[in-house]
Amino acid sequence: MKYTLDDFARLIDHTNLHADATHEDMKKLCDEAKKYHFKMVAINQVQSKFCAEQLKGTDIDTGAAIAFPLGQQTIESKVFDTKDAIKNGANEIDYVINITELKAKNYYIKREMQEMVAVCHEHNIPCKVIFENCYLTKDEIKKLAEIAKEVKPDFIKTSTGFGTGGAKVEDVKLMKSVVGDDVKVKAAGGIRNSDDFLAMVRAGADRIGCSAGVKIYEALKRRMGDDHVDGIEINR
Q1: What Cα–Cα distance (Å) separates residue 46 from each residue in 50, 61, 62, 98, 112?
Q2: Considering its fold, how many domains does the chain have in total?
Q3: pLDDT band at 233 (very low <50, low <70, confident <90, very high)
Q4: Which one is catalytic: 94, 154, 171, 196?
Q5: Is 125 left (phi over 0), alpha (psi -120 to 50) or beta?
Q6: Active site (annotated) includes residue 34
Q7: pLDDT digits over 114-127, tens only?
Q8: Which of 123, 45, 119 is nearest to 76 (CA)?
Q9: CATH number of the domain that 214 lies in?
Q10: Measured between alpha carbons, how far is 45 from 65 in angstroms, rounded to an integer?
């Protein structure tokens, strides 16, 4: 498949999840998303209203992070926060699973995913499930992906970017090999240049979460200009 520069831009969730982010930082994030036509701004839940107002009238989504970055909240708390984010203008949700309960190998994670997907889909909003793969074994990643294949969130996501490691090509391939076309994969965490970006797309990622979106976009633009092409072929 041939990707144009705008196709690549529409894969990017332009991200600022820092605790000390100011309103000026949030406005800059939204302005950049509008300038480069990114798919979404990825922000902490409390920034939902501000960013939704900044992006009003555009086709750029406001993506609220729920239970971020630890995932250590009850299902009820995550559902409440999701509803609050949606009420304040969020139209995509990325939530972090409860890793403690995953490692306990009980039904909790499936129920959590079902309830989070249900509240998002009730409002016609995409739900992305953050695995935080750096804390998981390959078998746990596979098991989570199997649950997702059954429950059908819109995306499963590699990482928060705040753990001990970020996205890995091998993990994206593993996740995609389990869910196939039933669920999409989002790669996030440590993706800072165009080579890493393209590697994740080739591995099967349909969305890339990163704070280096502008840098990556400009690098892809230069690459296409140097090669005198209007797109890049991606085989996966």
Answers
A1: 8, 15, 12, 21, 22
A2: 1
A3: very high
A4: 94
A5: beta
A6: no
A7: 999 999 999 999 99
A8: 119
A9: 3.20.20.70
A10: 5
Nearest to 25 by CA among 13, 45, 41, 9: 41
Q: Of these residues, 157, 168, 176, 184, which one is catalytic?
A: 157
Residue 105: its H or E element: none
Model confidence pLDDT, tens digit, residues 153-212? 999 999 999 999 999 999 999 999 999 999 999 999 999 999 999 999 999 999 999 999
Provide the pLDDT confidence category of residue 236 given band limits of 50, 70 and 90: confident
- Please report where in the chains the tokens 């090509």 appear, as a residue: 169
- In this prediction, residue 52 has a pLDDT band, given cuts at 50, 70 and 90, of very high
Distances (CA, A) of 1 to 13, 71, 234, 236: 21, 36, 5, 9
- Catalytic residue flag (residue 20): no
- Calpha distance 176→86 (Å, rounded): 28
Mean pLDDT, rounded, of the chain? 98
b/e code 174-213 from CB counts within 10 Å (16+ = b): bbbebbeeebbbbbbbebeebebbbbbbebbbebbbbbbb
Please provide residue 62's backbone torsions phi and psi, each rounded to the nearest 5 degrees: -105, 115
- Structure confidence at residue 156 (pLDDT): 98
Q: Which domain holds residue 104?
A: 2-233
From CA 151, how far away is CA 87, in angstroms rounded? 24
Is 27 catalytic? The answer is no
